[in-house]
From TrEMBL:
Protein name in the entry: 3-oxoacyl-[acyl-carrier protein] reductase
SUPFAM superfamilies: NAD(P)-binding Rossmann-fold domains (SSF51735)
InterPro entries associated with the record: KR_dom (IPR057326), NAD(P)-bd_dom_sf (IPR036291), Sc_DH/Rdtase_CS (IPR020904), SDR (IPR050259), SDR_fam (IPR002347)
Stated family: Belongs to the short-chain dehydrogenases/reductases (SDR) family.
Organism: Blastococcus xanthinilyticus
Amino acid sequence: MSQPTARVAIVTGAARGIGAATAQRLAGDGFAVAVIDLKEDDARATVEAIEAAGGRALAVGADVGDADQVQAAVDRIAAELGPPVVLVNNAGVTRDNMLFKISDADWDVVMHVHLRGSFLMSRAAQKHMIDAKWGRIVNLSSTSALGNRGQANYATAKAGLQGFTKTLAIELGKFGVTANCIAPGFIATDMTKATAERIGEEWEPYVAKRAAAIPVARAGQPEDIAHTVSFFCSEGAGFVSGQVIYVAGGPKA
Ligand SMILES: NC(=O)c1ccc[n+]([C@@H]2O[C@H](COP(=O)([O-])OP(=O)(O)OC[C@H]3O[C@@H](n4cnc5c(N)ncnc54)[C@H](O)[C@@H]3O)[C@@H](O)[C@H]2O)c1
């Protein structure tokens, strides 16, 4: 478990789902973890779970798409936990609809959280990684980046994150910083529960239907993604950069 001198990791959108599992996994790997979500109160349960397991964590409230809030959050994390050298850009939202029904606001909020959010967080955190001459950035893409009916906004953002990741890898590599992308397939979280609800399907049959189309014959769990983040953030993964790994229980969505 983490020591006072432990390296510091930030996980955004870590109040629940993939982010919460990732924060707990990185704490188990020995990182002190800043748990960012929109509301500090919502991030507390993840922090308590980490502390109960003997780790060190800090709950931070911030909208990752707001430049001032992001800078304040990263400054606070550096002061209270230590300089962050791992960043997992996980915060996400969906506003699914067919193209002709996507409102301007539903387009903008998806870009705000995924693209602007990952950009602002990475820009603020990279300074500490460059100072440390070591860093790991992991961005959450999706199999939807390959195209997905009803997700023109989300697919665009998730494909954009792949280009963002590859460019960070090129720019930051010489400072000992890697940047990689994880593109999950179907993972059982509140996000996919909301999708089932939106299309009027009961959760359990919906999961069974999705699992039937997945080669490993089960739904993904947040821990499946946390495990892959853990690999990218490990010491031994320093020669792996600019990659996109599909974690989808098979070769494609
Ligand atoms: N669940 C899946 O099947 C799946 C598949 C592919 C990719 N992903 C991606 O993985 C990531 C996590 O997904 P999840 O299923 O755990 O989602 P989730 O909806 O369960 O959790 C997302 C978290 O992000 C937070 N968040 C939203 N906007 C924010 C903002 N502006 N600033 C800070 N925090 C914010 C939410 O409050 C929430 O706690 C997302 O980027 C998502 O797009 C999920």
